[in-house]
Amino acid sequence: MGISMSKETAKNQVSRSIVRRLILGRGRNAMISRQELIRYSKLNPRTVDSYVAELEERGIISRETVSSGPGRPETYYRSANVPVLFLGVHVYSREAWVMATDIDQHPYFMDKLPVNLDDHNSAWHINRFMAMLDRLLSQFPSYRLLGIGMSYHHYRGGLKTKKLFQELGKALTQRYPAPTNLMEAADVMLLSYCRVFLFPHQQHLNLALLNPSDNAYLGLRLGGRSKLFAQRTNSQQKKMLEGILTHDTIVNRFRELTGNKDIREIHEYREAVFRGDPAARQLSREEAECLAAAIIRLQKHYKLDVIYLTNIISETHCRVQEIIRKTPGLGNFQVLRLREFSIIHYLTGACEVALDVSCGFFVNELTGN
């Protein structure tokens, strides 16, 4: 199968993932009936049948018909008696990561290689990466690789890194007989919140994940139900997210503050903050003030208990927390930061998500599976 990126909705991907996990997550020999699938997934029968047919076609599950007396026989499904493995790959300008998990996202392995495209070309890096991956996968000869999810960090790379990412995707597709899906890291971060939001002790909380990158993306879990939207798709939510500084805005502002027209990447600003550059620290304060204002609007509108921030540095996060703590009525409200580095863990979901590529995949709830 080739590299794929379609425009299927996140809602459909979540639905497909629910059906898949209801069957595969029960263990190798456990069965679940069609009626149970419909009841537990809360999906209509036609949708369930469609998703089940996809799994059957790929040999991932089997079907059995059981008669328990008069009336119509009941259809049951069980996972094929083959251990499955999902692969996630994340590439940015300095490193290439790989991680493999099972259906429940229990890790089998994780490793990385440094990337330096100034010293070596893409082919050299790809050969090293494939050798590392062959070595890691050789430890699991009986496992079936069901999918490969790949993420590229647009704001921590450039044209050379993007080329490396695309060529690595082709190499993986040619080497391993599994669906491969390529996606942008901002999409990974946006829809990764589901797993984070399904911690047992958080089931009753109203939660949000805010990812300011090329746009301001937001995921919500309200009253136990997940909702997705992006800034450009809903005018009401868009208004609440107004003023948040996107990466392009930050880069342009940093050029303006420093007078350096050669600044092109968000990481240049972030590294300057760590060095204590006065212009960068001023911009960090501006970024935090805009974020905090949007967060306060979101909290008041949705009565949020916790909001997770991604794609921001620790200094900006600390400033946001200071502003929130000084705001009346928000004493128990938590603003937590998900480190950008943890995107490799979100890719454990990208691994499983790649199952959907053959059916058309855009972005899944990457840690929610």
How is the secondary structure organized here?
Layout: E1 3-4, H1 10-24, E2 31-33, H2 34-41, H3 45-57, E3 61-66, E4 74-79, E5 84-91, E6 95-101, E7 107-114, H4 122-137, E8 144-152, H5 159-175, E9 180-184, H6 185-191, H7 193-196, E10 207-212, E11 216-222, E12 225-230, H8 235-240, H9 247-258, H10 266-275, H11 278-302, E13 306-309, H12 314-325, E14 334-337, H13 343-353
Parallel strand pairs: 1-9, 5-8, 8-9, 10-13, 13-14
Antiparallel strand pairs: 2-4, 3-4, 5-6, 6-7, 10-11, 11-12
Helix pairs in contact: 4-5, 9-11, 10-11, 11-12
Structure description:
The chain is flat, with a radius of gyration of 22 Å. Residues 1-10, 193-200, 229-233 and 340-369 have low confidence and may be disordered. The chain has helices spanning 10-24, 34-41, 45-57, 122-137, 159-175, 185-191, 193-196, 235-240, 247-258, 266-275, 278-302, 314-325, 343-353, and strands at 3-4, 31-33, 61-66, 74-79, 84-91, 95-101, 107-114, 144-152, 180-184, 207-212, 216-222, 225-230, 306-309, 334-337. It is of the alpha/beta class and 369 residues long. It is built from 13 helices and 14 strands. Strands 1-9-8-5-6-7 form a six-stranded mixed sheet, sandwiched between helices. The longest helix has 25 residues, at 278-302. Helix content is 42%, strand content 22%. Helix 4 (122-137) crosses helix 5 and helix 9 runs antiparallel to helix 11.
